[in-house]
Amino acid sequence: MPHADDSVLIETQHLTRTFGQGAQQVRAVDDVSLRLHRGEIASVVGESGSGKSTLARLMLRLLQPSAGRILFEGADVTRQSRLPELRRYWQRVQAVFQDPSASFNQFLTVRRLLERGLGLEGSRLDSKERDARVRWALERVALNPGEMLAKLSHEMSGGERQRVMIARALVVRPLLLLADEPTTMVDASSRASILNVLLDLRDEFGMAILFITHDVSLATYVSDTLFVMHDGRLVESGGVERITASPEHAYTRQLFADAFTMSERG
Ligand SMILES: Nc1ncnc2c1ncn2[C@@H]1O[C@H](COP(=O)(O)OP(=O)(O)OP(=O)(O)O)[C@@H](O)[C@H]1O
């Protein structure tokens, strides 16, 4: 079964984003139409510069498209630009990025950081409910709240910071998590456990996850669905089994062949 639920959560229609003018113009994302369903785990794969991060930033509404639309739960969110609307969107769509230290406020304890992450919702919860939600999120990423709540950024390891940033994204119980290379900064065993934590969350509350990665083996291991990008275009999409068994596009075949050769070399 390609996804847990048939309803479409987010859809992009002919999404396009250019940078620059004239001969210098780059079509970072070029006419990309894709669908992600509730509880579905998908990966956008492609080499460096293929437009993956730009697509993620568009879907996160951090960047305005040059053309095309984004529908979330059937509603057009493309032109939403007022902060209250965007905040409501970010209650449902959260992200974790590559480098956790870049998004870490060094003066905030883990408790304050996660309480801030609660945003709008936090103001509706009393302090006991806020505390319970913060502890819940830390436990989800296998951190001990008792040990972590009072810590500052410099008192944690890289792997702990990464997990705290994931907890911060989870604290609002998003419907969609965009994860841009979330495990590049951590060692192999932390990496496997972070991935397993994320996969459990789909089972637990039906969160959909979109991984953004150039790591084809990671993408095939965790995903139901693959979106293959090349030069800003979505060249192939479909179920992992189908794509790994019979990739249709020459670029996809090349991507898999390269990944396979690299893993054989070890
Ligand atoms: N703000 C910007 N201004 C100008 N060009 C940009 C900007 N952001 C991205 N680009 C260009 O758009 C193209 C796609 O970049 P993008 O970062 O989306 O690729 P990517 O697949 O995420 O790469 P990586 O895996 O290296 O992060 C590249 O040619 C890049 O140089």
Automatic annotation (TrEMBL):
The keyword Phosphoprotein does not apply. This is Peptide ABC transporter ATPase. Residues 10-256 form the ABC transporter domain. It comes from Limnochorda pilosa. The lineage of its organism: Bacteria, Bacillati, Bacillota, Limnochordia, Limnochordales. Keywords: ATP-binding, Nucleotide-binding. Gene3D superfamilies: P-loop containing nucleotide triphosphate hydrolases. GO terms for molecular function: ATP binding; ATP hydrolysis activity. InterPro entries: AAA+_ATPase, ABC_transporter-like_ATP-bd, ABC_transporter-like_CS, P-loop_NTPase.
